[in-house]
Amino acid sequence: MAIDVRPETAAPPEQNPNRLKKLVIIGICVIAAGSLLCLGFTPMVFSGIVQSMRDSAENAQEGCGSLGFTVDDDVKIDGLAADQLQNAATIVGVGQKMQVPPRGWVIALATALQESLLHNYTVATDHDSVGLFQQRPSSGWGNAPATATDTRTPAQRLADPSYASAKFYEKLLRQPGWNQRRLAEVAQAVQISAFPERYARWESFATLLVNRLTKGAANGVVATQGDPIRCATPGQITGAGWTVPALGQVGSGFRPPDRPSHQGVDIIVPRFTVIHAASAGIVITSKCNASTGNCDVDGGISVKGCGWYVEIAHTSGLTTRYCHMVERPLVQVGQTVVAGQPLGRVGSSGNSSGPHLHFETRVNGDAVNPIPFMAARGAPLGTRQ
Ligand SMILES: [Zn+2]
């Protein structure tokens, strides 16, 4: 399919007080540049935008995206100037041409946001780091000519956004399991940065950017080379990096009137069904929680607690919780898990009247309704295939 990236049609920034304020903050970052000085607070600038997008469930309504896009009046992101938006579009466009799945576009954008705030630095500002990804000729980046007639120096090549993006993707695709692993881990494997965890802070914003540029492709997958984008099926990892933990009908919902303290949803699945990590992260809880002290037998409505359960910390203050497992979980505290990794099996331990998965999603510790939360990440709960 055609890819239409048209720099000349990039819209002039819409001027309003909020936008100006954000642009001023970005401006300060750029002046302070090397971009390192502003890293502590720039993700905060965008987090409000990302959250409001999620609240409006825009991502969920967008479908699963499309190949080919234009950067025009329809695409605006508060806080991004025209050059930043254009560079983002170039990164996504190169990923599409190379048939990299959408998860790769999110990882590439998060990396470039961290390295350059999507400004193309054509002159080295930090050692010999150049361009959107701050790649270094002294580390071998830029040595390969783009074509037989490419006589540019490595630094000149790396200052070309299309070239730099292609080289990023080439190395990304060589990382085993890259689309299931934590973004920080994969970006670090490509970039070898001194501050690997900083990439992760941009994951939500990078996801938003991909969705805006491609009408929701962060909700989709490209299963094999040449396929069009389609919605992720259970077990597949979306561009946003999420998958469904267990495929089944949703029984009791989030805080219904008769159960206002029910902080998650109950997915009705048979005993011993494998429970999958909804996204990559680090295990922060793996234990038995039952007022009887015994999770190896079925609980009941008079028993308090989650039973055998696991909790995972993802990026951006997000956590997920999986309760009532039939036996001790398969993962331990401190362990890094990839998206879709088996965590344990369904049971009825703790406060449970029959086998099911009680699944919670939390933002900064506060439980939120998993139905829109998962839909916004392209991995809706329920029985839909
Ligand atoms: Zn429940």
From TrEMBL:
List the taxonomic lineage: Bacteria, Bacillati, Actinomycetota, Actinomycetes, Cryptosporangiales
TM ranges are 23-46
Q: What is this protein called?
A: M23 family metallopeptidase
Q: Which UniProt keywords apply?
A: Membrane, Transmembrane, Transmembrane helix
Q: Which Gene3D superfamilies match?
A: Glucose Permease (Domain IIA)
Kindly give the InterPro entries that the UniProt entry links to this protein.
Cell_wall_metabolism_enzyme, Dup_hybrid_motif, M23ase_b-sheet_dom
Q: Where is the M23ase beta-sheet core domain?
A: 261-370
User: What organism is this sequence from?
Assistant: Cryptosporangium phraense
Please give the Pfam families that the UniProt record associates with this protein: Peptidase_M23 (PF01551)
Report whether Protein biosynthesis shows up as a keyword of the record.
no
